[in-house]
Amino acid sequence: MIVYGINPVLEVLRAGRVRELRVGGREGGRIQEVLALAGEHGVRVRRVPPEALERDARGGVHQGVVAVVEGARDYSVAELVRGASGPPLLVVVDGIEDPHNLGAILRTADAAGVDGVIVQSRRSAALGGAAAKASAGAIAHVRLATVVNIARTLDELKEAGVWTVGLAGNAATPYDAVDFTLPTAIVLGAEGAGLRRLVRERCDVLAAIPMHGHVESLNVSVAAGVTLFEAVRQRRGGGAGSA
User: Does any domain span residue 241?
Assistant: First the structure.
């Protein structure tokens, strides 16, 4: 996998997953920080022309550095549940195709301390450079499980005792009325279309973020942030429906 940009590359270096570092152009400023960390980890550094970085990053903003990274470990759903330090808090991504949205969700998931993110192997944004860049390097730290079928995965989560909460704009239950202190998987639908019918039907509860302005819904990554930090608030003692 290719990761580009200074912050994402620093994070994958810290995670010990870089096989090769490629640097082009001037090497001042924060590039020196990247090079120093690569040296600490014994990572091979190649000086390449700037156009080579452009090809690696496919036109993305690489900031003069690209890392060739080992693929992240692919966890099973059961491993994500068992690996939780408390009641599991998971995110399930159903058909999100924009890598920038996926990356933003991973960044928020890391910030909220989730126990893992579940993505579908098909009809989903690639876990590559654009998603890694948008995640600001969080892709190096979040545990990921790749599954074939999201609807069946929700059944597996239920069997493991995890409450599945789907976000849907037309749901009757406000998101902050849901008890997120329980083992919970927050299910996010695709941009525009939202949750697919079978996935929607498998969720234990559907919840909405009330909208008080003129637009009908939030960007999916923003909705993920709002809901995840409501879960964090409750788990710190706030409780569902409390101020």
Answer: no
Q: What is the CATH number of the domain that holds 13?
A: 3.30.1330.30
For residues 21 and 167, give the distance between their C-alpha atoms in angstroms, rounded to a whole number. 39
- Asked if residue 149 belongs to a domain, the reply is yes
pLDDT by residue (tens digit) across 102-157?
A: 889 999 999 999 999 999 987 776 777 777 777 767 777 889 999 999 999 999 99
In this predicted model, what pLDDT tens digit does every residue of 164-189 receive, in sequence order? 999 998 899 999 999 999 999 999 98
**Cα–Cα distance between 155 and 130 in angstroms, integer?**
31
Question: What is the domain count for the chain?
Answer: 2
C-alpha angle with apex 193: 183 to 74, nearest 5 degrees? 45
Do 110 and 152 fall within a single domain?
Answer: yes
Residues 112 and 225 placed together within one structural domain of the fold? yes
Identify the domain containing residue 224 by its residue range: 77-235
Cα 106 off chain centre by: 2
Q: Around Cβ 72, how many Cβ atoms within 10 Å?
A: 18
**Max CA-CA distance within the chain?**
57
Q: How far apart (Å, rounded) are the C-alpha atoms in residues 110 and 143? A: 9
